């Protein structure tokens, strides 16, 4: 849901995003992530916007990710290959406050390879800029360390003064979703008019997309669980047939193994001559 909201705001209000990040209002158009693909990429989190002579790459993150530095280098190389004459600006924007040192990483370095990118931690930003631009209002609730309830009230007042109804509905809906990171739902409901958000066509589309992605993730997770359970059942049957009933502690240890280790265990069983061999195998490092 957060990914969908951020992506929609960045693509719909790109000139506001440009004013904030680049210091000037530039008309940007969307670039399809597939245009950079040599091999599959995480297109769900990738936001690419282009203008004459410029490619803007944004990554909104709700949590720290150790793979970010390499990913930024990877996307820079893909972007430069596709748009060799464009200057590439990259920003990782962390939405949720964390004490992880990973959110301070702003470069990839490996031997002689060095690549630098911009990093923005919203909770450290001054709120003023976010209240200047309509497209930035939903992010304002994540900015700074002050009274979030009072801040949301100020944002709601700004939203109420938006003339265009559809824009007002959409910005209100996006604010509602992002505010969920820092405020209780009952407080948000008291301040923002939920009926206006629910009438927003854009909000409903974002909700549907979020549900579909959630369903896909759920199906994928269910598939993994089912595969693991199938492997576990076969392995325990083989071990029981070979050695009889296993001690409960071994049963528990096997059940905690991940799929790759279970697959290795299924092959190793053929070489086991006793339960002791099984214990030795389990004690080995991956």
From TrEMBL:
Enumerate the spans annotated as DUF4351 domain: 226-282
Superkingdom, natural source:
Bacteria
Checking Pfam families in the record gives: DUF4351 (PF14261)
Q: Know the name of this protein?
A: Rpn family recombination-promoting nuclease/putative transposase
Q: Which organism is it from?
A: Pseudanabaena yagii GIHE-NHR1
């Amino acid at each position: 849901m957060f990914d969908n909201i951020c992506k929609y705001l960045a693509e719909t209000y790109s000139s506001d995003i440009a004013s904030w990040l680049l210091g000037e209002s530039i008309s940007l158009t969307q670039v399809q992530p597939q245009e950079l693909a040599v091999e599959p990429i995480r297109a769900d989190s990738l936001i690419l916007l282009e203008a004459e002579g410029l490619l803007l790459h944004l990554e909104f993150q709700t949590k720290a990710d150790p793979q970010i530095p390499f990913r930024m280098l990877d996307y820079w190389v893909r972007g430069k290959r596709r748009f060799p004459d464009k200057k590439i600006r990259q920003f990782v924007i962390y939405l949720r406050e964390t004490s992880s040192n990973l959110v301070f990483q702003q470069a990839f370095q490996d031997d002689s390879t060095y690549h630098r990118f911009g990093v923005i931690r919203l909770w450290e930003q001054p709120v003023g800029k976010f209240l200047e631009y309509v497209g930035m209002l939903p992010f304002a609730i994540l900015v700074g360390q002050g009274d979030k309830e009072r801040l949301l009230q100020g944002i709601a007042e700004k939203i109420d003064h938006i003339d265009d109804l559809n824009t007002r509905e959409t910005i209100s809906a996006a604010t509602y979703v992002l505010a969920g990171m820092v405020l209780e739902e009952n407080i948000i409901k008291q301040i923002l008019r939920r009926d206006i958000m629910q009438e927003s066509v854009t909000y409903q589309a974002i909700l549907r997309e979020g549900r579909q992605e959630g369903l896909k993730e759920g199906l994928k997770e269910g598939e993994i669980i089912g595969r693991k359970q199938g492997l576990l059942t076969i392995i325990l049957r083989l071990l029981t047939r070979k050695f009889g009933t296993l001690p409960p502690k071994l049963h528990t240890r096997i059940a905690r193994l991940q799929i790759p280790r279970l697959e290795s265990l299924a092959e190793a069983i053929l070489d086991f001559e006793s339960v002791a061999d099984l214990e030795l195998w389990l004690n080995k490092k991956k």
